[in-house]
Design brief:
By secondary structure, the chain is an alpha/beta fold. The chain has 25 helices and 27 strands. Helix 16 links the parallel strand 15 and strand 16. Helix 3 (56-66) runs parallel beside helix 4, helix 3 (56-66) packs across helix 7 and helix 16 packs parallel to helix 17 (501-516). The relative contact order is 0.08.
């Protein structure tokens, strides 16, 4: 099951009602629905003649026949297009000639690239408005008229696109549309032929339906008794159900195209500055795209298959638009990559990402970040900028393997020294590594023990103190001794007025760093929950769904969320632009951004095609899992939170902290002075050492040390813990 599909239908009850109306009406072929759809689509294109046909390939075949393209003729087609263009040319006996695209940014044909391919045998040109971006039709139309060439527009990607105020499909002698399932106007199978020429309109109508002078409907209505066959024709007719659905889809087309634009702009913003490039960054001022697909260009040398498999493993579907003609058996020896070197490079590196009108911005973020931990997100942001040296340390060997695979599969290879080391930053091995491989300009500490499911466990709590506080101090001192320009570490929003032990440990860490800031510049970041990060409740949704198990979540706890990429960008921004002792946090609105876990669970399941079914208990959710899932319902147990350390809401700062909300547009800054109680810090350190030197200790012992360090610590102890929940 895909988390994010390549494409989804934009259908609702209106399409169902349209099909039902036709079935109940009793007339299924070439009737009033076809006539209405043709007229409406012609008006939409600006008042041209339209002929509904079986599919887009039928439209192309008819166009070539109507223009008398045949043996010994050459037809110029884009080297970057679907094989239907070449097949149609071959099927009429003509020769397809490949024209290269304009540039690495403009993947369409231009008048210049077409002109380079014209010979004495050239009879016609087929242009494709790739991905919904219109070609330079004024220049191409002018060239074709000057050279006496017929012009066919393949508008399969571009219903509604325009240039100079004129719709694509109305520029050429004939326009050919496809209404295949994944198209902007989708009816399953179907297409349309458009023309402004009355004679071509008449001939195309004959070609569509056996060359017959009257239709079956005419005879059914009593308007004709028999028919003549004016010329040999084909059966390329559309049926009434598709035409009825087409009318509904035409009504949705403009809004759907606009939504595609918004999502494409989100993709472009997310990928800005990365090694993954999006074409068509420069669009003519009078051009309107309809953003049919979302093509990107992977870095040179990237293993595209590995990228596709990696995305597949994370539930994200992708595709390739298009494989090159010279690799197809049917065209072996007829084309070569040197015919179109620009397209040859694109075909090796192009990847198509999900795009459809009902897609959400959050799904775009999931595609572009491919999910992961804070450390992975920050590493990716740094790697994009091609540092001279980037060394990553993590205690988990598996994390390191996946990090490398992720970067190689999405960004590729930089020119610097990028290596990973599976060692513990608290170990002697880490000290040896740091001494041998350093010094470093910037040291970023992204580690934290944050998923402490049961605060009653005194042993994990002690490890949390070691990881969150003392390893931070240790690595900072190593960075200072090595001459680092800046030390950065991750804090948490839970450090503001903490109510649980994890948040309190990070607040204590911040206090220790205030002292260290006198000798080493430091900065930090507090941010919200990272959506679907490893070990989080949302990540657990993925696991429960994969294992067909119930989803359990509180319905009263409201949280802020950021994407992995946003967490990485915030950390890097704080490291590079934050002043000494600054803590950066995202500006999030309580009204717009706070959301409950149960709300997220509902939206998550609906995006996967299931309706959440709220059960009264965990037992009911478990017992009815298979039954409900079989009915496309997902068992959920939502409950009032009663576990230790859960705030009702999130906050990034306290009313006692000095804020700068003007320095950055989307990020706030907590400005700290080097204020600390040296005696309290030493007492806390000595107290922890004393506990560790004992054979055992209790949670109460650690809590007591926390209260001595943080007198206002509002510890919420209920006696119930997260590991007692599903």
């Amino acid at each position: 099951m895909w988390k994010v599909q390549l494409f989804k239908l934009n259908f609702d009850g209106r399409e169902v009602e349209a099909a039902r109306r036709v079935v109940e009406g009793g007339w299924l072929t070439m009737g009033e629905e076809i006539a209405g759809f043709e007229a409406a689509f012609g008006n939409y294109l600006g008042g041209v003649n339209c002929i509904a046909v079986a599919n887009g390939t039928a439209a192309l075949h008819m166009a070539l026949l109507a223009l008398d393209i045949g043996a010994d003729d050459e037809v110029i087609i884009p080297a970057l297009t679907f094989v239907a263009d070449a097949n149609s040319v071959r099927l009429v006996g003509a020769k397809p000639v490949l024209a290269d695209c304009s540039s690495a940014d403009n993947w369409n044909l231009t008048a210049e690239s077409i002109e380079r391919c014209i010979t004495l045998r050239t009879k016609a040109v087929i242009v494709v408005h790739y991905a919904g971006f219109p070609c330079d039709m004024p220049a191409i139309s002018k060239l074709c008229k000057e050279r006496g060439l017929k012009l066919i527009e393949d508008v399969a990607h571009a219903p509604g696109a325009s240039i100079g105020g004129k719709k694509c499909g109305a520029w050429g002698d004939i326009g050919c549309f496809s209404f295949f399932s994944n198209k902007n106007l989708s009816i399953g199978e179907g297409g349309m032929v458009s023309t402004g020429d009355a004679d071509l309109n008449r001939r195309l109508r004959y070609l569509r339906s056996h060359g017959m002078s009257t239709l079956t409907l005419d005879r059914h209505k009593g308007r004709a008794i028999t028919y003549d066959v004016v010329e040999p024709g084909l059966n390329y007719r559309m049926d009434e159900m598709r035409a009825a659905i087409g009318m509904v889809q035409l009504d949705k087309l403009e809004a759907g195209n606009q939504r595609r634009k918004v999502l494409t702009e989100r993709y472009r913003a997310n990928l800005s500055g990365s090694a993954v490039k999006m074409p068509f960054a420069e669009l003519a001022a009078d051009a309107v795209s309809v953003y049919h697909i979302l093509p990107v260009m992977l870095p040179a040398g990237t293993d595209r298959t590995a990228v596709i498999e990696n995305m597949k493993a994370q539930g994200i579907q992708s595709s390739i638009h298009y494989p090159p003609f010279w690799n197809f058996t049917a065209y072996a020896g007829q084309f070569k990559s040197s015919d179109a070197p620009q397209v040859a490079d694109i075909c090796e590196r192009q990847l198509t990402l999900p795009l459809y009108p009902t897609m959400t911005e959050e799904e775009v973020d999931l595609v572009t970040t491919a999910s992961g931990s804070i450390g992975q997100a920050v590493t990716r942001e740094i790697f994009k900028r091609d540092p001279a040296v980037l060394h990553v340390v993590d205690i988990s060997e598996n994390n390191m393997v996946e990090l490398v695979r992720d970067i190689r599969s999405t960004i590729g290879y930089g020119s610097g020294d990028f290596r990973t080391f599976a060692i513990d930053c608290g170990s002697r091995e880490f000290e040896a590594f740091f001494a041998a491989e350093g010094p470093y300009d910037y040291v970023l500490n992204l580690s934290a023990l944050k998923h402490v499911r049961s605060e009653k466990d005194p042993y994990t709590l002690m490890r949390m103190v070691d990881v969150n506080v003392f390893n931070t101090v240790k690595t900072l001192q190593m960075a200072r001794d090595g001459g680092a320009k800046k030390y950065f570490c991750v804090s948490t929003d839970k450090a503001a007025n903490p109510v649980n032990m994890m948040g309190a440990s990070k607040r204590i860490m911040e206090l220790f760093l205030m002292r260290e800031s006198l000798t080493q510049p430091i900065s930090m970041a507090r941010f919200a929950n990272v959506a679907f990060s490893d070990g989080s409740l949302l990540h657990g949704f993925n696991q429960r769904f994969a294992k067909r198990q119930p989803i359990s979540a509180p319905n009263d706890v409201r949280r802020y969320f950021v994407t992995p990429q946003e967490s990485g960008e915030l950390c890097l921004l704080s490291c590079l632009l934050g002043g000494n002792r600054d803590i950066l946090f995202p500006k999030l609105s309580e009204r717009l951004h706070l959301i409950t876990f149960s709300e997220i669970a509902g939206r998550y399941l609906q995006r996967l095609g299931f309706e959440p079914y709220e059960c009264a208990s965990e037992d009911e959710a478990r017992d009815r899992a298979e039954e409900l899932i079989g009915k496309k319902q997902w068992p959920c147990y939502f409950f009032k939170s009663d576990t230790t350390g859960e705030k009702d809401f999130e906050e990034f700062f306290t009313d006692k902290e000095d804020l700068d909300m003007r320095r950055f547009e989307s990020v706030g800054v907590i400005r700290n002075q080097s204020t600390f109680d040296a005696g309290a810090l030493e007492r806390f350190k000595d107290g922890v050492v004393a506990l560790r030197n004992r054979s055992t200790w209790t949670k109460a012992d650690i809590v007591e040390l926390f209260f001595e360090m943080l007198p206002d610590f509002a510890h919420m102890e209920t006696g119930k813990y997260l590991d007692q929940r599903m």
